[in-house]
Amino acid sequence: MKNKKSQIKMFETIAVLIIFFVLIGFGLVFYSRIQGQGFQEKQEENFELKAIQTAQLVSFLPEIQCSSDGIIINDCFDLLKVKALSEIIGNDQKLRTEYYFDTFGYSEISINQIYPPGSIWTIYENPLDGYKTKSSVKIPISLYDAKKREYGFGVLNIDVYG
């Protein structure tokens, strides 16, 4: 009789342990799915922050900023500098891959002149083949034409690929 009681006790203990481990397993699966969603959201947030950082880098790029008497004017691009930089980067693959890739990575940067109606200049173009995500940032800017000594209006388009 004692032997049967001890077998029943041992069976009860094993059953409780099995149920305990099954519950822990369900908890781990649930927790990992919640963490996976949080990780993906954090990854998307970091990608958007990278796009904004790239937009800020372009906005304060000394190669194309307007300046008057050595003083830089915010949100203003000099059209002569924009055209020159567009041609230089467009024609020099080595400059685009070695110098500007560290700054802009896989992105596409262009300026669209809205008023007076004008051109579109591609400053940097290095899209990622087979990209999964793309973030676009558009910033209104002032364009200064030094030849005519007048200001125009444009949009800075930044597409970052990831």
Features:
162 residues; alpha+beta; 51% helix; six-stranded mixed sheet
Describe this structure in words.
It contains 3 helices and 6 strands. It has 162 residues and is α+β, with helices and mostly antiparallel strands. It has one domain (2-161). The protein has a 6-stranded mixed beta sheet with strand order 1-2-5-6-3-4. β1 (65-68) and β2 form a beta hairpin. The longest helix has 58 residues, at 2-59.
Number of helices: 3
Number of domains: 1
What is the H/E string?
Answer: HEEHHEEEE
Name the shape in a single word. Answer: rod-shaped
Give the low-confidence spans.
Answer: none
Outline the secondary-structure elements.
Layout: H1 2-59, E1 65-68, E2 71-78, H2 79-91, H3 93-104, E3 107-115, E4 120-125, E5 134-145, E6 150-161
Parallel strand pairs: 2-5
Antiparallel strand pairs: 1-2, 3-4, 3-6, 5-6
Give a brief rundown of this model.
This protein is α+β, with helices and mostly antiparallel strands. It has three helices and six strands, in the order αββααββββ.
